[in-house]
């Protein structure tokens, strides 16, 4: 037997690999021919309902996870726009420190122009935020949760609490409660912005195609609800916010 | 079965998996039950196979074709056979105990036999008659182009086990091509 050199060996290996692939293909053909003869028998098989349920659950969990990730992205997108604006404000405030009254007015005007796209919502100056606020802190949450919605998860950062609700399908609601003085920047570009009374105090309603935001406050807290559900349900939910 | 799952997070893949389940669910259950003769085990095998397929959906381009149907059969059959072999007490040496044997990974040279290109189905049938797992492993390796570790993952066995099966499948192929009688007792 002639001992093949490395090149020849590689070629022979390739030939055999191709041949095995051909045999594999033939094997699959044989499997399919065999299955055709058993088609009637296979079609008469009753899959256990527990197996169907398992598969349905698997798909459902997968869909929910998918939606959760999409919602996170959606909220993050809003968040990133907010962060950009906060930077602008910080620079503006630095200028203010070294400015005369006349320039201060200009800076404020400029700030309002920015609000044509992103509107700032702030109930009080941050300086006013003190320890008393923390002492006053109660767990204010909506007592009314729309039918079919459940809490997906809750996040707390300092005094800011965010609750995300899901209906297990496409619907989502984000409720957030933060101390008065917290800055909020909402994307109001191409949105309808109107005033609305929530529990007797003025709130702002931002209506957009992909979701609505209701922002309001009481003596201690600022709140917002972000959702794509019906406005009247968002309002009902806001009206129901009480100390837990 | 434990529901620690590889979750599919895009709609197209999910739709593909649903199509696979609806098209081949009965077939998978039929194959698994045919081997194990146990409804609960057959159900477990189908679940396991679905999860394996879910992790390899990118390799399935067309759901409704013989290639995919064959793939589903091979995955279910081999997973079920592994369970069957674990259940059965064998007098011969099990795969796992001989994994440390030195296996010549090189593919044998075809100098001593003729590669018959007009009799693929017949050769595949002969190989499957010797042991269906041999033909399956060749298909997974060379036709579906899975790596040894991927095959091990797909059919719930060790990588060493895959290497041994491939080695035996190729040896069996040589014997068939030479027209010799195959001694199965050595190969179990």
TrEMBL record, chain B:
<dbReference type="InterPro" id="IPR013325">
    <property type="entry name" value="RNA_pol_sigma_r2"/>
</dbReference>
<comment type="similarity">
    <text>Belongs to the sigma-70 factor family. ECF subfamily.</text>
</comment>
<keyword id="KW-0804">Transcription</keyword>
<dbReference type="InterPro" id="IPR036388">
    <property type="entry name" value="WH-like_DNA-bd_sf"/>
</dbReference>
<protein>
    <submittedName>
        <fullName>Sigma-70 family RNA polymerase sigma factor</fullName>
    </submittedName>
</protein>
<dbReference type="InterPro" id="IPR007627">
    <property type="entry name" value="RNA_pol_sigma70_r2"/>
</dbReference>
<dbReference type="GO" id="GO:0003677">
    <property type="term" value="F:DNA binding"/>
</dbReference>
<dbReference type="InterPro" id="IPR013324">
    <property type="entry name" value="RNA_pol_sigma_r3/r4-like"/>
</dbReference>
<keyword id="KW-0805">Transcription regulation</keyword>
<feature type="domain" description="RNA polymerase sigma factor 70 region 4 type 2">
    <location>
        <begin position="121"/>
        <end position="173"/>
    </location>
</feature>
<dbReference type="GO" id="GO:0006352">
    <property type="term" value="P:DNA-templated transcription initiation"/>
</dbReference>
<feature type="domain" description="RNA polymerase sigma-70 region 2">
    <location>
        <begin position="21"/>
        <end position="88"/>
    </location>
</feature>
<dbReference type="Pfam" id="PF08281">
    <property type="entry name" value="Sigma70_r4_2"/>
</dbReference>
<dbReference type="GO" id="GO:0016987">
    <property type="term" value="F:sigma factor activity"/>
</dbReference>
<keyword id="KW-0731">Sigma factor</keyword>
<dbReference type="InterPro" id="IPR014284">
    <property type="entry name" value="RNA_pol_sigma-70_dom"/>
</dbReference>
<dbReference type="InterPro" id="IPR013249">
    <property type="entry name" value="RNA_pol_sigma70_r4_t2"/>
</dbReference>
<dbReference type="Pfam" id="PF04542">
    <property type="entry name" value="Sigma70_r2"/>
</dbReference>
<dbReference type="InterPro" id="IPR039425">
    <property type="entry name" value="RNA_pol_sigma-70-like"/>
</dbReference>
